[in-house]
Design goal:
349 residues; globular; ABC transporter involved in vitamin B12 uptake, BtuC; mainly alpha; 2% strand; transmembrane; single chain
């Protein structure tokens, strides 16, 4: 009842933002701080992938290149450049965006499985380069001992670094939220639903896709940079294709095209992996894969996507409140029109 009233009043989005911010602030008090940092970083990574998958209609299996590439770039800036970690994280995000530009130019003209395979091929090429360029990347050993000092403060304690890295994650999530709610985001949704119609209306489809690809890579790079500084190393696994597969799984678990669903998927996967690893269980992939299959079969829109769909259905099914019945309450706005059949995941959530 409370959620239904909030949805009809148009304040549901603001309430969700406040609740999400509070959850992010108290998270290291509730769980192990390094795990809390992992959830925050993977949540931003999932939002970056959902920006491309849910709102542009492009499935990328190569986003590990931007996550891992930014991690290496951030580590190198700190280790060899002597820069503070905020500058290094920004530098890693810019590196990811620049790396995405040539990859996007060669990929965005493709769609579907072809786009996914091309991005996967590029990511594996970057993985091979990082593995062979041992003098710079450390090869299989990666970059070790990345410091976490800033303005003379020692942030080696994971609890304190969580709050130092959280502003970057929140800024990235806010940027993704603003993108999907902007006119640019509406054009992306129209391109996702009907590229031919968008092209007939005069929108340069490939240019919009390329910009979305670069923005998504920059957000993924921000998450990878915070992750590398938080853990003090940049590992070769961050560039491997399984990293891309894992973040896609998080997006699907939470709900494609919901943006915030990725945070839920990230929390579930990271917490489950930490619990199973702590318990000494070696078949982590079996458990996470089984849960993924069950959720996909039972919740076709994902966890948050299903909850949002039920809330919208409830709002549309509620009869309008008469003036006499609602005199003691605040005025309620008329319900929004139902989403078009061609857009199963409305933008802006």
């Amino acid at each position: 009842m409370i959620l239904s009233r909030l949805a009809r009043s148009g304040r549901g989005g603001i309430v969700l933002l406040v609740l999400g911010l509070l959850a992010a602030l108290v998270l290291p008090w509730l769980i192990y701080p390094p795990v809390a940092l992992d959830i925050a970083c993977w949540a931003l990574f999932a939002a970056a992938v959902d920006l491309l998958l849910g709102f542009t209609g492009l499935l990328s299996f190569g986003h590990a290149a931007f996550w891992g590439g930014s991690a290496y770039c951030t580590g190198l800036i700190v280790l060899h450049g002597g820069m503070p970690f905020p500058v290094a994280i920004i530098g890693g995000a810019l590196f990811a965006a620049l790396l995405a530009l040539p990859i996007g130019l060669l990929s965005v003209r493709l769609t579907g499985i072809y786009f996914a395979m091309v991005t996967l091929a590029f990511a594996q090429m970057i993985y091979f380069v990082a593995n062979q360029w041992r003098d710079v990347t450390g090869g299989e050993n990666g970059l070790q001992g990345i410091p976490r000092e800033f303005l003379g403060l020692d942030l080696s304690d994971p609890f304190f670094f969580y709050y130092a890295g959280l502003p970057f994650v929140l800024a990235g999530l806010f940027a993704a939220w603003r993108i999907v709610r902007s006119p640019f985001g509406r054009v992306l949704v129209s391109i996702r639903d009907n590229p031919a119609r968008a092209r007939a209306l005069g929108y340069p489809v490939e240019r919009y896709r390329l910009l979305a690809f670069v923005l998504s890579a920059a957000l993924a790079g921000t998450a990878g940079g915070v992750f590398a500084i938080g853990h003090g190393f940049a590992a070769l696994d961050g560039l491997y294709w399984t990293t891309s597969g894992q973040v896609v799984m998080m997006v699907i678990l939470g709900g494609i095209g919901t943006l915030w669903g990725g945070a839920i998927g990230a929390a579930i996967v990271v917490q489950l992996q930490d619990f199973l690893a702590t318990a000494g269980f070696e078949g982590v992939g079996i458990v996470t894969g089984s849960i993924f299959i069950v959720i996909v079969l039972l919740f076709r829109r994902g966890i948050w996507g299903t909850a949002r769909h039920l809330l919208i259905s409830r709002r549309q099914a509620d009869p309008p409140v008469s003036p006499a019945a609602g005199a003691a309450e605040e005025p309620v706005e008329s319900p929004e029109p139902a989403p078009a059949p061609a857009s199963p995941h409305p933008a802006g959530d």
